[in-house]
Amino acid sequence: MQAEQSLYSTYRRLVTQLMHDQEQLPSLPNITLEIRRALNDDTISISALVGLISRDPGLSALLMKHASSPLYRQVQAPKTLNDVVNQLGLREVGRITMLHSVKSLFTLHSAAHKNLFLEAWERLINKASTSAMLARLVGRISAEHALLASLLSEVGSLTVLSGFKSAEEIPSKALYEKLCREYGKSLGVIVLKKWAVDDEYIEITRETGNWFYTKGNTLQVIDVVNLALHHIAQGRASEDELPSLEELPAWKKLPPPLNEIDDDGTLKLLSSHQHDIQLLAQSLR
């Protein structure tokens, strides 16, 4: 126990140093910055934007896969990037570009780093996919908006890994999760401010997991993210005791029959669409 506490103190020191050194924090790739600037240019043509996106094969592939995902009920899947951009629209292309960037940001120094990252990423995309599907099923909120908000709310968990530079500095899964609980939100807010994202994403990062946070009388993006997180958390044996779904202000904003609950305490709406959620998550791996 004493050895574990000593290790944890060491890891806390590394993460604290990371929080105070902007140079160590991940920066958005240049191609992402170029695409963001292009999307803010009212004169940009679709062909010029497609040319820019084509410079990143990974992003191009993700956009193609995403546009063919269960979020969209297209009679015919898009065949070209032009089709994808026209289908998604510029705003959604920008959100998926950010999502792609997040996964590619973190330098993995060893196999142990990679294992921790992949476990964290799997959890993040399951939560983000659940958020996106819930947004689509409920309506009013863009599925991509919910997807990106959910993912960005956990950027701090990935950033924690940036503090560990060698294989000897890799914490156990339990200690890593403890560090994420202690520092994840603060690091996430610092990183998102560095990236100059919309203030809404920063607010969502601060309030994700705050089960009794409420804003307005209608369903907001933060409500969708928290409902998705609650759904995911119920399936994790190590999760602390959760409030019941009926206690959440977010659930109270759902009209019947969207608010129906299964015997296991989860939203029927999500339980009945698990296959689609997993297909969407697969498109993000």
UniProtKB/TrEMBL annotation:
Gene3D superfamilies noted in UniProt: Hypothetical protein af1432
Residue span(s) of domain HDOD: 25-211
Protein name per UniProt: HDOD domain-containing protein
Protein source organism: Ectopseudomonas mendocina
